[in-house]
Amino acid sequence: MLWNIDLTLVDVAKVIRPAYAEAFRKVTGRPLVQLPQMPGRTEPEIFFDALARNGINLHEGGEAERMVAPFGAELATAIAARRDLITQEGYLLPGAAESLAALAKTDGIVQSVLTGSSRPNAAVKLRAFRLDRYVDFTIGGFGGSDPYPKAGLLEIVRQRAEEKYGMRFAGRVTVYIADSPRDVEAAKIAGARSIAVASGRASTAELRSSGADGVLSDLTDPEALISLIESTA
Questions:
Q1: What is the C-alpha to C-alpha distance for residues 227 and 215, in angstroms, rounded to an integer?
Q2: Residue 34 neighbours by CB distance under 10 Å
Q3: Helices 150-165 & 181-189, crossing angle to 10 degrees?
Q4: Which of 4, 61, 104, 193 could form a disulfide with 8 if both were Cys (CB 3.0 to 4.6 A apart)?
Q5: Residue 220, Cβ neighbours under 10 Å: how many?
Q6: Strands 91-92 and 10-11: what pairing?
């Protein structure tokens, strides 16, 4: 069972946006005037889009690629410095903790995360709301740390889980719970099931049309989530 973090479990946009702006300015020397859409994307994807949207052409000679690591490091520093603000200005989405807790008590389920955030940034967000106790962080997929799109990350998480637990997590045994059509597409590419939650920018209709195996308006009914997971098996 893999969870997306931002806009699926927590909403910390008020804290993350200034952190992105600070990291972008330090790495490029230019202000971040326009922040790209973030749902379903990894931190490097957001950075490359931000370069284009803010009129910075660094694609020749691979300069943009060389800036990804410094940007990631600056972003992690900026988010860590705002750790206390996450619980002050961000919030846990309704039913998120209860759903994680319910699945943690369900036999045969291993929970982890598949997120566009880097490992340190994901850890800050989860720990702020004490969600880290429900997931096996060691097998997670982190788009800001591993250089793969989310579909590729999903395969990596499977391999890590199989090595650790000695079980097969291939195909539709794996379920990805997220909030964007891009996440649904990543699950489809990897052959996994997707449960989409309309807690982000996409409506239930948009998530259904994207091909999600199941759609919920929110996570306030953990029993409904578990029933949906079982019915889509």
A1: 12
A2: 11
A3: 60
A4: 4
A5: 14
A6: antiparallel
Identify whether the C-beta of residue 225 lies closer than 8 Å to the C-beta of residue 99: yes
Beta bridge partners of 91: 11
Q: Where are the domains of the chain?
A: 2-11+91-231, 13-87
Write out the two tokens for 85: 């603000």
CATH of the structural domain 2-11+91-231, one choice from 2.70.40.10, 3.20.20.140, 3.30.1490.10, 3.40.50.1000: 3.40.50.1000
Count of Cβ atoms closer than 10 Å to residue 57 Cβ: 9
**pTM of the predicted structure, to 2 decimals:** 0.93
Q: What is the pLDDT of residues 123-143, one digit of tens each?
A: 999 999 999 999 999 999 999
Q: What is the pLDDT of residue 39?
A: 85
**AA letter at 198:** A
Q: How far apart are CA 83 and CA 77, in angstroms?
A: 10
Containing 175, the helix (H) or strand (E) segment is strand 175-178
Per-residue pLDDT tens digits for 48-59 = 999 999 988 766
DSSP letter (8 states) at residue 156: H
CA angle centred on 161, ends 160 and 166, rounded to 5°: 115
Separation CA 88–CA 101 (nearest Å) = 23
